[in-house]
Amino acid sequence: xxxxxxxxxxxxxxxxxxxxxxxxxxxxxxxxxxxxxxxxxxxxxxxxxxxxxxxxxxxxxxxxxxxxxxxxxxxxxxxxxxxxxxxxxxxxxxxxxxxxxxxxxxxxxxxxxxxxxxxxxxxxxxxxxxxxxxxxxxxxxxxxxxxxxxxxxxxxxxxxxxxxxxxxxxxxxxxxxxxxxxxxxxxxxxxxxxxxxxxxxxxxxxxxxxxxxxxxxxxxxxxxxxxxxxxxxxxxxxxxxxxxxxxxxxxxxxxxxxxxxxxxxxx
Length: 267
Description:
Elements: H1 2-15, H2 21-27, H3 31-39, H4 45-76, H5 78-91, H6 93-100, H7 108-126, H8 139-154, H9 160-166, H10 170-179, H11 182-209, H12 211-225, H13 240-266
Helix pairs in contact: 1-2, 1-4, 3-11, 4-5, 5-13, 6-12, 6-13, 7-12, 8-11, 11-12
């Protein structure tokens, strides 16, 4: 039951701008176990299913239940909503940095972080309009959407909203969830399942062989996405909306930082 409830929160993080389901899995201490369970799904099938089923079911509930709420918040309260998510993502920085420096950290990894922060800035900010927004996806495009969704769920710190927006999929993704459009969701599910198994296997191998280098790359990309949390509608001024936005940002930071310290105290 606890994993189901955690899954709901992870699912909400997977669709919220600035959050990442995988970072929430790290905070809850479930990331490595989930990665191994997916990558070895058929090796220890019963054990893995018993662990994954409540977690994945909760994630599905979180995504489907929160998609309409998120649409409403972004439509009517966009500025405070985005500042709240900014606070949440800033609060996860210490936890992710702890993972980067966890094993055999040296000066070269600073350069890896900087290089991939710059590459991410080019890809997700400067070059973010390279792909046209998709509104009526084919089956193949829906499967690709599923692969992208599960990739952002598995790779820590990679914001799904920014990634999907960059490749032109975010609007159709949120719309398909809100409308429960099975013509998009069913082939997307194929991409999620196949992509999840393949990407989990790859990430498990990368973490086993190059843990610090892999997390350095992830952390650099994570940093590059932070500026995308705010847009042209998020301009601070001397008004009540700005005060509310700053307050919810601080609260968001406090919540995610506190959750991160709980996980740190366990390890």
